Amino acid sequence: MNRSGYCYDECDSQEGQWARIRWRGAVKSAIRGKRGQALLKDLVKGLDAMEDKKLITDKLEHEGCYCALGVVGKVRDMPLDGIDPDNSFTVANKFDIADALAREVVFINDENGWHDETGEQRWQRVRNWAARLIKQQETA
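RE: above sequence
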């Protein structure tokens, strides 16, 4: 099992397909919500502030390098060493986001790139993804 917990073998049946549709709806809702937007803004802010623009996989932080959620933790001055990066419910609770969004960010960071993707390429891909999802301020 991967860190995101995503498994596509269950999509073969009609019930599996409906479960996936419901899950994607939960992810979209979490992204559009106030907490999801705050996470995306902190992620872009943290990514832009990085001196060494590359992301790691499988851990929140390792020897001064971060995954996407680790970048948010750094922006928010969160202690990351006590958070189990494989427990999406704990991660979601610590980052004050929906479990669906925690899993999605991990999927985007760890699994959505090429198998030989560099940390720098991952940084660019994740930054593009997050920036694209930030809602623009509506003018009245």
